[in-house]
Specification:
The protein has about 550 residues and is mostly helical. The protein has 21 helices and 4 strands. Helix 4 crosses helix 5 and helix 16 runs antiparallel to helix 21.
């Protein structure tokens, strides 16, 4: 339960601090103003990093015992917070920023006693201490700057970092690496709280304070995971679970060096800038970079026990394909076709036609409530606390349906959400459907396809996905595909997958519904009534 506590507290603290900070951001001079190199067109508070850092450190202070490593991480984070806020106020030179970064790295190495002892391609041989310490400084400072320079679009750096943190947390969980897991989940919580306000169009930026802390945390966790926690993990795997920011900063520095420019000078030639110049929208660029990062981090799990050469070969091959396609598109003058320009493919025209576009929504609007009611009726054991909660919510839902004039009031929506979560949990752990995996897999496969087709092609549904939705789905995919010990997928994994898919279905139905007496509300009422009866029945 401790990792969950850290995640919840970090997310809550981050979400509470950021709105307070952006109100005082103008008085503090923490405003990011537009310029030719930047994408945003209006001033935006850059105080999100303060929320991320404090959100991550508060539960860490409560959960971890005082030891040199925890102290070095905490002090390093606070040093970078000070230098980051200073830079967000006054735009420091790279030399001054390096001072803060080297102090943070020195704390980890000399106070925390953590450095790289085993490097890729060296087998079980240990590095000399001077070489390991030097490589650790390079890794930490390099990753800090990689995340700092990748923070160019709303949600980009936070999303990339979150995907890496999820895989690091999962790898630590696999082998009961409690300390690494605690560091990872508290940082995840800080970033999640920030992303709530940073999805395009962003209301707040993380600034240097956030991006430097994120890079520092990723480097620290990668070293801690491979050198202390999961020593059988190939050290080359860090290339994969740190993913795209590494190759991005290297490519930028090479391009600037070839042009005779300072490699530390800010310019508009990162991967996200180049994709924007090819005609992709802000949203499309962020989603594509998320997809690439997800490919890398998921590959880190799949290839975790492969040789260093195999992992490095895969990474370099993927990078070569990426830049080959990018350079060819730039040199050929290729531009993304705008929506509606030219004729769409025949199958797109078919899916967009009115009769066909209705079918996926029909599957969502009918299949989802039917599953909710049938699954509830099939459960045989309901805990008493579930029964009490369901009884209260059933009364609330019925009252809302009878007396409220709003189409989908807040309490009604909340009651349906809880019914879905209860069904997801009980059918996985208690109910008779827990064994009907083939039927459930088929249903949820169809539901997933119907949700995707409805969002994409049904013009009557204005449900808008955001980059945050893709991060949620990526996190669920990691849990679903790899949330296992041995071969059996855990109940928590199945519960999360089912709940998230059904919650997306609910949002689509609520967005379209015109009546409180719809099939979904009735199914939720049935489910809550069944849980109340079985949970409170004597004996």
């Amino acid at each position: 339960m401790e990792p969950l506590f850290g995640l919840v507290v970090a997310t809550a603290v981050s979400m509470a601090i950021i709105p307070l900070m952006w109100r005082v951001a103008p008085a503090l001079g923490l405003i990011d103003r537009p310029d030719p190199r930047k994408v945003h067109k209006a001033p935006v508070p850059c105080v999100g990093g303060i929320g991320i850092v404090i959100g991550a450190l508060v539960p860490l202070f409560l959960m971890l015992p005082r030891n040199p490593l925890a102290e070095s991480y905490t002090l390093g984070a606070l040093v970078l917070l000070v230098f980051g806020v200073w830079d967000d106020r006054r735009t420091l030179s790279h030399r001054v920023k390096f001072i803060g970064q080297f102090i943070a790295a020195a704390l980890v190495v000399f106070h925390g006693g953590l450095w790289i002892e085993h490097a890729p391609f060296m087998g079980i041989d240990e590095l000399p201490k001077w070489a390991g310490v030097t490589l650790t400084f390079v890794a930490i400072v390099g990753m800090i700057n990689a995340m700092n320079t990748s923070d160019g679009l709303d949600g980009l750096a936070g999303g990339e970092g979150l995907l890496s943190l999820l895989v690091i947390a999962f790898l630590a969980y696999m082998i009961d690496g409690a300390e690494t897991l605690t560091f990872a989940v508290t940082t995840i919580g800080g970033v999640l709280g920030f992303l709530r306000f940073n999805t395009f169009p962003a209301r707040v930026f993380m600034g240097d304070a956030g991006s430097q802390f994120l890079g520092f945390s990723l480097a620290f966790l990668a070293i801690h995971l491979t050198q202390r926690t999961f020593t059988s993990l190939s050290p080359a795997g860090t290339l994969l679970f740190l993913g795209l920011p590494i190759v991005d900063i290297f490519s930028v520095m090479i391009m600037r060096a070839v042009r005779g420019e300072s490699p530390f000078r800010a310019a508009r030639n990162h991967i996200h800038h180049r994709l924007l110049d090819l005609g992709f929208t802000h949203y499309e660029v962020v989603i594509r970079i998320y997809a690439l990062q997800a490919l890398f981090v998921l590959s880190a799990v799949v290839l975790r026990h492969e040789s260093d050469w195999t992992i490095a070969g895969f990474y370099l091959g993927a990078v070569a394909i990426l830049f080959t396609l990018l350079v060819r598109a730039e040199r050929s003058g290729w531009r993304r076709r705008e929506e509606g320009a030219g004729g769409s493919r025949w199958w797109e025209r078919l899916l967009q036609s009115a009769p066909v576009a209705r079918y996926p929504y029909f599957l969502v609007a009918v299949g989802m409530p039917l599953y909710l009611a049938i699954a509830a009726l099939a459960t045989s054991e309901v805990p008493r606390d579930f029964g009490m909660t369901s009884a209260v919510l059933a009364v609330v839902l019925l009252a809302e349906m009878l007396y409220k004039r709003e189409q989908v009031p807040f309490l009604m929506r909340g009651a349906v959400y809880v019914a879905v979560v209860f069904v997801s949990y009980l059918t996985t752990t208690e109910g008779s459907l827990a064994e009907a995996t083939a039927m459930e897999v088929a249903f949820f496969a169809v539901l997933t396809a119907a949700i995707a087709l409805t969002v994409r092609y049904n013009t009557g549904v204005r449900f808008q996905t955001t980059p945050m939705d893709y991060l949620i789905l990526a996190g669920v995919a990691i849990v679903a595909l790899f949330g296992q010990r041995g071969l059996a997928v855990t109940a928590v994994s199945l519960t999360m997958v089912k709940a998230v898919l059904m919650l997306y279905a609910i949002e689509i139905i609520f967005e379209r519904t015109q009546s409180r007496w719809n099939l979904l509300n009735l199914a939720a009422l049935v489910a809550l009534a069944v849980f109340a009866w079985r949970g409170l029945a004597p004996g």
